[in-house]
Amino acid sequence: MSAGEQEPGADAWGRAGPRSRPRRRRPRLEGFKREILNAPNLITVGRLLMIPPILLLVDKTDPFKGVLAMALFLIAGGLDLLDGWLARRQGLVTFFGKFADPLADKIMVMALLVYLTAEGRMPPWLVAVLLGREFYISGLRIMALNEGVEISAGAGGKAKTSFQVIGIACVLIYFPYLAPWGGWVRFNEIGLLFLYVSAVLSVWSAVTYTRGFIAALAGQTEEVSDDDEERAG
Question: What does the pLDDT look like over 35-59, one tens digit per residue?
Fold first, then answer.
């Protein structure tokens, strides 16, 4: 190197300066941010943020809090329908949405069932059946995904969800109210009745999903064996 030449990274006096490090790009992180920051997924995140206020309103000593908790719970259910509709209409069905949307539903339902049981509004065995079914189906879906089998919600699962939502909403109201036609509407008893039906549908739909999973595996095995025979021939 000649005297007039300067070492890369050195200043005018020949002192070595700090070497500039190449900037590391994170395209996956940026893509993940863009995936989250769309209307359907933001609504899903908003539903997750609604869970703590609803739980704070679970109080069987204040009728107004019960009605307000029920209203927020139903609004969250309406937002669940809205974000799914927007995702399909705008072509924004993402991996994050597929993961977070059912997760938000399960966390809200599980948290409310635990809180309502702690308040003495429903028997513990009922919550054990409902939560046990959810954990079982979640595990079954993971097994199905690993085997390349898709388990979609059937009629039994959708009916279970409908009865569960109505039951939880009624139990949140809790207090009996005078009906316009006379007599009393005992919301807690009505809610428990809906949840009992939901428990029966939960077990039935779990059995149905299990049969479908086994049938799908059997069909895949037959296809593989047929391919093997063709290769052997």
Answer: 667 777 888 888 889 999 999 998 8
186 vs 144 pLDDT, higher one: 186
CA distance 157 to 206: 8
Of 110, 108, 95, whose CA–CA distance to 41 is shortest? 95
Residue 186 is inside which H or E element, if any?
strand 184-186
- Tell me the per-residue pLDDT of 118-146, one tens digit each, with 9 for 90 and over: 988 999 999 999 999 988 988 888 888 78
* Short-list 26, 6, 9, CA closest to 18: 9
Query: Could you give the C-alpha distances from 101 to 27, 88, 164, 189, in angstroms and in order?
Result: 24, 13, 17, 30
Determine the distance from the C-alpha atom of residue 160 to the mean position of all C-alpha atoms in its chain, rounded to a whole number: 15
Output the CA torsion sign for 141, 144, 149, 154. negative
At residue 84, the pLDDT reads 78
Residue 199 Cα distances to 123, 189, 209, angstroms: 12, 15, 15
Kindly report the three-state secondary structure assignment for every residue of 150-184: CCCCCHHHHHHHHHHHHHHHHHHHCCEEECCCCCE
192-228 burial, b at 16+ Cβ within 10 Å, e below that, comes to: bebbbbbbebbbbbbeebeebbeebeeeeeeeeeeee
d(CA 69, CA 59): 9
> Which two tokens mark 119?
């308040």
